[in-house]
Hints:
Blueprint: H1 2-17, E1 59-60, H2 62-70, H3 75-84, E2 86-89, E3 96-101, E4 104-109, E5 115-121, H4 133-147, E6 157-164, H5 180-199, E7 206-213, E8 217-225, H6 228-250, E9 255-256, E10 262-263, H7 283-297, E11 305-312, H8 318-332, H9 337-342, H10 345-374, E12 378-384, H11 392-403, E13 407-411, H12 417-439, E14 474-478, E15 482-488, E16 491-495, E17 504-514, E18 518-526, E19 533-543, H13 557-588, E20 599-602, E21 606-612, E22 616-624, E23 630-632, H14 681-695, E24 700-703, E25 706-710, E26 715-719, E27 722-725, H15 745-755, H16 760-765
Parallel strand pairs: 1-5, 6-7, 6-11, 11-12, 12-13, 20-26
Antiparallel strand pairs: 2-3, 3-4, 4-5, 7-8, 9-10, 14-17, 15-16, 15-21, 17-18, 18-19, 19-22, 21-22, 23-25, 24-27, 25-26
Amino acid sequence: xxxxxxxxxSTRAMNRRSPPPSPPPANRLRSRGGGTGFRSPSSSSTSTxxxxxxxxxxxxxxxxxxxxxxxxxxxxxxxxxxxxGKKERHPSNRNLIIYxxxxxxxxxSEDESxxxxxxxxxxxxxxLKYISTQEGAxxxxxxxIICDENSKIPWKSHSILIVDKSGSMRNSDVSGxxxxxxxxWLSIAQDFINFRLEAGTASDMDxxxxxxxxxDAKVLVDRHPTNKLLFNRVVEYxxxxxxxxxxxxxxxxxxxxxxxxxxxxxxxxxxxxxxxPGGHGFYGPSLKKAEDLLEQYDDGHAESALxxxxxxDGRPSDHTFILRDMNDNRKKSKxxxxxxxxxxxxxxxxxxxxxxxxxxxxxxxxVERMASKxxxxxxxxxxxxxxxxxxxxxxELVSSANDFGGQANFxxxxxxxxxxxxxxxxxxxxxxxCQTALRSATNIGGQQQRRVRxxxxxxxxxxxxxxxxxxxxxDIYMNEDVERDEYKDGKFVKVDLRDxxxxxxALKQLAFGEGQERLAFQFFEVGDDGSTVVGEALVxxxxxxxxxETDTLGRSNNWLSRDKFVKRFCKLHATAQICAKAFNQKLxxxxxxxLDTARVSFIDCCVYYLNHKTRGxxxxxxxxxxxxxxxxxxxxxxxxxxxxxxxxxxIATLPEQENEDEDDDVIDLTGFDKDSIFVSNNEVAQAFxxxxxxxxxxxxxxxxxxxVMKKQSKLFCFTDPAIHYHNAREEEGxxxxxxxxxxxxxxxxxxxxxxxxxxxxxxxxxxxxxNAD
Length: 773
């Protein structure tokens, strides 16, 4: 107002002419601004008349308290901002004051009660990256290669990011960003794109597609290379979300239109492609779009890692439109009018739950189809923001992906940019691990990702005990179409089928298991009728990757690669079995060793040659199916299961020692032979790997121990081991991958002993061997 503006100008002129006033007496009342006189709106609020920070009066309103608790801002921080922070008047409401202090902003009324209107954390300002002319040209070349359907250059990965843009993503309860949607864009830019670019784990052949999840599915970014231009594009979406929130709050009241309703929405001058949250979030269309994109673009890229990242802040709303359509159909029907009125609240609730259950089942099937088709190279990550109770559906989707051979994880970070970014970064790390697994099994150099064999997967948790094979998913091979070979005395010999009554075999087309190197299928021997199962349940295994071998015998490369793979696997098992027998004999020779100490074995395997009418002859590895809890005790990269106190038996007979170390991870039993010696099952497994290295003259180390522990017989049944081989006397090139792709040579041996802590059994089983030079 004019009179207030004149008063401000006269006061400022007076302050310039006169010296600053002396401090007021203690009994003088402070003015409304918190100082000794009238203050400029842009001046600092630090004053000497406020006393202790905790004594500053502040009225916590309902809305202010809600925002303060959402953003984890204590009341004392607001009191400190009033005392020490920068003070300025609100641009649109002259009765409100904005206090800025230590990265936080607090809006408080100017009256004596000091009502807290709202509080927020200062947002992060993302800057666009500079793009040189050379980088722009490089991007255009990469974009042309990716979009060319006839291009033979393989993709390294394809990531599909599904971003929820429903109305709840406008909520301003995330610390560090104005809205939830802004936090998502920030995390994608910094922790998914820039993080991988700086680490060197992403390149132009790492393709990214972004889908907006609303009432329909919209492809916002289509097959974009991972580079600075993608980073800048996501940063623009981040800035748009910040501006949209400012505009929404600025026009919150809106202007009344001709119909009397208040008009809201973005300003007309918003740039094209502007993303504003609103509406419902339907999971179904977005998952269907992701499935279609994977099928359209990734069928020809069987060597690329696939990644679907779903970011949402609530349960799916797909059932709402279904219920609306059901109600509309009832209203159109003349005969159902009375039935609608007679429906109780419980009946309506049951109907809603039934529809929601059907929606969740449909969503699970979409994820199951993707995981079944792509297996371990398919990564599915679900990140929820908000209440944990809203994410039963996301948990079910993750569980379905894991059951059908995919790799999936679910996270619910806190409502802060740091925690959401950490969750997105974890998803990016999973994608990198999948790419590393594909590259680690390549030829020398390890840079080219290998093609994965195409097959469908079935639910690994549902493997029934069959007595008859009547399903169309089984391939039947009878009589002369089946040949069984065993590895004996260093060579393969032809033998009869396992069961005397067997006349053929049945191989299921769907894989129920997938490791880093092998696919596992259900396998049975059948009788004369070709359907009756005889003998025990078996497992057939073949290489997960499509190998390439030189053909010198007139056979296809596929035949040669499979034959080489299965024979090498059987030789490896035979080598491990010989070492296991020597280890058990060593355990038998140890005096006072507990009789219940577990023994070690590797299941017997053989080779079946099958002759298919259209595919020709091929070979598979066949071994008995392990029933029970499948566990892993160590791997070929140095990881080892730690022995916990719960896994140990009580060693009651051991005498107590003075000043005993409190560390329970290692128990030294060497030199104690007065009473029985007790060791845990995990200690037996780790001691066997150590023993294999000493037993072979420090040339071979057997690891990657996995299988089933049969508690009744106290016997380890291991399968799919890995052997690291290194002989210092041989040439360096001859040591490479002697025992297959999982053989890491001297590096694998070193990784094992870097993480291995010898237990008492290690010292006992490795005695008596001559040290190799």
